[in-house]
Structure formats: structure tokens, C-alpha cells
Amino acid sequence: QAYLSYSNIAALTHLARKPGWDITKTLDNVRIWTHEEGAVLSFKVEMQVKVPSHVAFSLLSDFSLRQHWDRHFLTCKVLQAVSEEEKIYHVTAAPVTGHQPRDFVILVSQRQPCRPQEPYTVAVRSVTLRAMPPSPEFCRSEILCAGFQIHSNSSSSCTVCYFNQVTSGVMPYLAANLTGSSKSIEDTALECIKFLE
């Protein structure tokens, strides 16, 4: 478990530091970036939020609150509290037209910054849990690497960056968006900002 949580945080930090991010869209307080490497597509959503970074961190690290702003999340329950910084959740996602509803078993690892210039981190990855085998009503999907980095801008504002390394399980939710026929990433980002503020 210690290795899993360490590699969860490390994978997100590595993804965030990769060079070669291309900006694809800029709105007032949201910017969307993509990164392609071979068959792997990653995206980053950067949001300017008018709350202190520690407040954004406490709200975003509690995944049971995610349904309040992310309409892709239908249910989210804690399966296991591994430690104060680590929880395993079972998430069910709304079905996309023509697809079976999906579910995910995810490890959410949260870390406060060790030094002032470091961000708060909430890292997410899929795990297998014997107590939660795949069920026939859902298509069990995988999150390779996703999560938030929260950088403090001032005592009352921060920049929240959401990252996701896209797998086939997440692709149906994004395909229409990245081709420009849907605005779900932007809408979700704006809902997230509204929720945090």
C-alpha cells in the first residue's frame, strides 16, 4: 500500500512536469491543455479560483463531494480508509449513449506541500480490491493517472490544475469534447470553480 500511494503521487507529479503541453482552449478563468505521447493522450484543465489553496484542497480531496460539481459521477462511496491521506472509493459513472454504465475502484492519495512553493496534490489511480469484484451491470474501467495540483497564488486565490491520462474507459466522456462538439470539460471546470467558491 505504501508503494501504491507513493507511485500514485509520483505518477501525477511526473505527468504535470512533462514538457510539450499544447494549449487547446482559453476561457476567462479556465485553460485546457493536451499532451500526446505515442498512443497516450493526457489533458490538463487549469482553473483560477478565488479561495485559499488549503480550502480548495480540503474540498477536492474529499471525493464524496464530487457529485456536487461533476455530473459524470453518479455515486461515490468509500470502500476503505487506508490512512488519513489515502482512501479507496467505488465510483459509478453516468452511461454515455451507446455504452454500458461504467464503474471504477480508485485510490485517492492526498499530500500537503512540504515546502511553500510546492502544490497541494490529490492523485487518483485505479486499484483492484478483492472485496469489490467487477459486476455484470457495469463495465469496470481504469484510471491510469489523474488528479489535482493546487498552487497558491495569494492568501485568497489559487490555481487548480486537473490532470487525466486518458484510457479507453474515460475516452467516451471526452471524445466529443476534444473534437469540439461538446463542452463537457469546460462545463465541468466551471461547475468546479462555482462549487469551490
TrEMBL record:
**GO terms under cellular component:** cytoplasm
Against SMART domains, the record matches this protein to: START
Q: Which organism does this record belong to?
A: Rhadina sibilatrix
Cite the source lineage: Eukaryota, Metazoa, Chordata, Craniata, Vertebrata
START domain residues are 16-166
Q: From the Swiss-Prot or TrEMBL record, give the protein name.
A: ACO12 thioesterase
Kindly list the GO molecular function terms attached to this UniProt entry. lipid binding
Record-linked Gene3D superfamilies: 3.30.530.20
